[in-house]
Amino acid sequence: MSRPALHWVVDLYQQIQRHISPFKVMAQATPTGASHGSSPPKLTGRAFYESIGSPKYIVAPMVERSEFAWRLLTRSYLDEERSKSFLAYSPMLHARLFGETARFRDEHFQPTRDSLVSKEKSLSSPWLDGNPNLDRPLFVQFCANKPEDLLEAAQYVAPYCDAVDLNLGCPQGIARNGHYGAFLQEDWDTIYNMINKLHKELKVPVTAKMRILDTREKTLEYAKMILSAGASILTVHGRRREQKGHNTGIADWQMIRYLREQLPPETVIFANGNILNSGDLESCLAATGADGVMSAEGNLSDPTIFANPPREHNPREYWYGAEGKGGYRMDAVFRRYLDIIHRYVFDREPPMRTPLYVPGDPEEVPQIMEASGDVAHEEVRPRKRQKRFSKQQLDPNIRSIQAHLFQLLRPLVSRHTDIRDALATTRCGDINGFERVLTMVEAAVKNGLDDHAASPNVESKLITEDGVDEESELEVTPRQTTTLKYQRPWWVCQPYIRPLPDEAIKLGAMQPRKWNASKVDSREAAGNNGDAGRRLDVFETQDQSLYHVAKEELPKPTLVFG
């Protein structure tokens, strides 16, 4: 039976199920989470956390970004020790839409090759999402505002994940319009009822991700309510709801530390915010006392953020800079990412590739590796009208490739506009187009490495986008100070440094609100330009300011929530 026909049958079946579901509830003798026969009891809280390996390093839930292929790319860089202490979240999914149709589920969650039509675990072989050999532990995150919708959606994914997470942190306008995410934080009854329903009726634990409120006392009360409803793990993003875009600012680690000290010691807490590179992971854990540290946009800029340098010297994968300022090469990460797409999404071996270049290798002209089969598209430029989408274009792992590459290659494409343009015009699903971009990236990195080998002192003296270098006698902004600390050569994975709100106002990128404009003026009158010692952060969300180049140069990015 074809998938469209199967979807029609499933939708009809679900309508019938809605009519008879009240009778099913009356007939149940035990709650869903109870032990049946040999089924183990549902663990919660710290016992559950320890059962999945007590993970310390966590990939955040991000819409259209933390999909299977990206999670696997991140996992692939971890050594055996760190792999045991790693957890990933799915992208945030809309609970009502996920529960309503099999088509929506199949376009966002692929535990097997079959359509996701049953709440019972499929007898088919595992495929992508939640594959026990590739993608566990895994938490699946939903946004919702009705307990019934959340439970309905959660029951479909429960057989393939370790926990279901409720999004209480999305600060975007779409969350305000839909009344979910951070815009539920005044509606405590709704939050409590959703978490409590999953706690009582779902076979796997429920967790939650929240933002801090205006005061310590209110934030603590809010966290206690979430935990009392049955949340087994609490992720705390140390920013308030209004901190987004140019107003992102710095996450408050001290607020997370306050929660750690005030909540019972058995409470499991993940800290989120202010993670720019791998050096910040342990700093965050020490400052907050949290059990784990979560990264979102830091992971998007550098999927190796949780990894240690290679155990053996490997300059084809890793750039060894002075004073420990090394990092994984963009061309190597890009190549590994496409190999994962080939092997796991397209079900075939990647193209044969020559070793990546290091100075001293014989000169070779990079060969464009082309894919074969139905997924290879001849056209590069999109048609003006495209009403139908292929199966590959609807795949969550395919939809996100271009946006991932813009984030990963940001320093490189800002310098090499021909690569930027080639990437911008590559169609969704055009794997050969992305292979051509990879070839261009490899050639650019080769030239960069040769230039560095010829004049190592030039590249080792890092300079910010504003022309300030490490030896500058000019007064530098906090953003420039942070950039000099975290910046690497343009061919190395590295974070994007956002300006602080005060800097964004001075640059004209943000207008102060009436209620805080006077505060800005008073600080300037007092000669206080901000604490230069404070570090900047990457907001764990993307918005229109994601690409720090002219608006017409790069396509508008998709919003990322979580």
UniProtKB/TrEMBL annotation:
Enzyme Commission number(s) from the entry: 1.3.1.88
Question: Which intervals hold domain DUS-like FMN-binding?
Answer: 59-308
Cofactor(s) needed by this chain: FMN
Which reactions are catalysed by this chain? 5,6-dihydrouridine(16) in tRNA + NADP(+) = uridine(16) in tRNA + NADPH + H(+); a 5,6-dihydrouridine in mRNA + NADP(+) = a uridine in mRNA + NADPH + H(+); 5,6-dihydrouridine(17) in tRNA + NADP(+) = uridine(17) in tRNA + NADPH + H(+); a 5,6-dihydrouridine in mRNA + NAD(+) = a uridine in mRNA + NADH + H(+)
CDD domains hit by this protein = DUS_like_FMN
What are the GO MF terms of this UniProt record? flavin adenine dinucleotide binding; tRNA dihydrouridine synthase activity
Keyword annotations from UniProtKB, A to Z: Flavoprotein, FMN, mRNA processing, NAD, NADP, Oxidoreductase, tRNA processing
Matching Pfam families, A to Z? Dus (PF01207)
Family recorded in the similarity comment: Belongs to the Dus family. Dus1 subfamily.
State its role. Answer: Catalyzes the synthesis of dihydrouridine, a modified base found in the D-loop of most tRNAs. Specifically modifies U47 in cytoplasmic tRNAs. Catalyzes the synthesis of dihydrouridine in some mRNAs, thereby affecting their translation.
- For this entry, the protein name equals tRNA-dihydrouridine(16/17) synthase [NAD(P)(+)]
Can you name the source organism? Cladophialophora immunda
